[in-house]
Amino acid sequence: MTPIKTLLLCGYACGLALAVVGCEEAKQVAEPPRPVRTVIAKPAAIGEEVAQTGEIQANVETNLGFRIDGRVATRTAEVGMNVVKGQVLATLDPSDVQNEVLTAEAEVKSAEAAEGLARAELDRQRTLFKKQFVARARVEEAEANWRAANAKLNVAKTGLQTARNKLTYTELRAPDDAVVSAVAVNAGQVVDAGQPAITLSSTHERDAVFNVSERIYTTVPLDVQVEVALVSDPTIKVIGPIRDASPTADPVTRTYRVRIALPGAPDAMTLGATVTGRIILPGKSLIVLPASALTSENGKPAVFVVQPASQELVRKPVVVARHTATQTLIESGLNEGDAVVTAGVSKLRPGQKVTYDAAEVTK
């Protein structure tokens, strides 16, 4: 064999060997389709649970004050004290009013004497008139005097009743069973009529009071039922309706005060206790995905979706409405029926071939 032919054969053999090696490398580089787990996107109306912290307050709070001026003589009420209907909470010095009562009693006695004398004179004039000893005019005059005396007696009796009523005003009594929530006077203090002295919180009805944001205030319907539970013991709970809501926002916090009625509230829900109120806001169309399905693209939330025709992955940006411990709720970015990858998304890339068993797809 000539040197030229030998050289050609060697070159051919080398080229063939390189081709074989290249084919083997190509076979090694080719990646098989990756099996993935998916879930089918299906929008559903999902309400949002909102929890708010508030406190227990009395439905009725009454500011008590004396109906007359005076100096406070005693005060038995203390903050936190339970009082019963009719219990004396504070008193005024009654000396001046007692003198008014004595004066009114004297005026009544004087008026009674004058009225008795006028009646006797009228009887005497009538007797004399029957015997024709006096003229009719004398009888009419006696009648007029008696009517005037009787009127003065009635006025004196009314004055006495007023003075006696005024004497009762020196005592400040509880109008109903309640708890003393505030005290604003002390013994020896001079107070004006109507000046707030003691605040009572009724124990008959209790409310849960919350300061809520504008979003909740404008979204929640007035007929919603709110679950209220004690923070210290969540097993103690009451479901009640909205009793009333503030029509304007607080100028500082920009929140709205909402009161929730607590029918049949247990004794454990004492005034001032901290509670949590939970409601479900009206739902909107969202797609629920496992939290493991979420990845990112350029720092924004995204998910991998399988293209049915090519069995390749596409990364779609999404708008997340909110998260839970195990789920992600998607507001937009997906279409109904999209097959969303739910596991191992950190190891996937766009355009990658995948396979999935239709029987394993969940809805």
TrEMBL record:
- Native organism: Metapseudomonas resinovorans
Q: Where in the cell is it found?
A: Cell envelope
The domain of life for this entry's organism is: Bacteria
Chief localization? other
Record family assignment: Belongs to the membrane fusion protein (MFP) (TC 8.A.1) family.
The region annotated as signal peptide is 1-19
Q: Which UniProt keywords apply?
A: Coiled coil, Signal, Transport
Q: What is this protein called?
A: Efflux RND transporter periplasmic adaptor subunit
Describe the location of the Multidrug resistance protein MdtA-like alpha-helical hairpin domain by residue ranges: 103-170
